[in-house]
Amino acid sequence: MSNIVEELTKTFPEFSTELKSEIVKQGRLMHLKAGEVLMSIGGEFRTIPLITSGAIKVMREDEDGRELFLYYLRPGQTCAMSLNCFMLSKPSEVYAVAEEETTIIALKAENIGSWLEKFPDWRAFVIGTFQLRFHEMLSTIDGIAFRQLDARLLEFLKEKAAVMGTKTIITTHQDLADHLNSTREVISRLLKILEKKGEIELGRNKITLV
Predict the structure, then answer these.
(1) How far apart are CA 97 and CA 157, in angstroms?
(2) Which one of 1.10.10.10, 2.60.120.200, 1.10.1470.10, 3.10.450.50 gives the CATH number of domain 148-209?
(3) What pTM did the predictor assign?
């Protein structure tokens, strides 16, 4: 099993030797199973995750329990929402769940503030994280406001396939409906249309991108 030094060197080569040394002292490796919840809505951020392998899915949820997919966290990234909530001393406004078997380096949240002044590369990493998520959030808003649901559905399938490293996605129509804040009937109808267009092939609880 790899150790924290190997994970850092492999996934965060841009970090300085000094920053890596501090992460090794303060962080710990965590291995998450697929479906394991990393953070729940209303929870307190005690750790900040650095993703080294796998993928974390970040979601929002309304008062009725309906879900809205926001973005994936991939290797070499961290969660802007967790950084923001910790800095503002706010509880989590999202929940995060492992999309597949995932390894993270869990950092003690109280350290990250002082690191912004101490390590320029950490400051650049945090700023880059906020910039990336800001653009992704704009893309999500644009998709909801301006794009048809079939286009959003196909884009989501492609992104999920890229994260999982396969063209065949194991999922249900209800799961897709939950992620896109729609209904199973609408998603099923759109999937059949996409299949007729030759974009996908449907199977039992699986979808293959063509």
Answers:
(1) 18
(2) 1.10.10.10
(3) 0.74
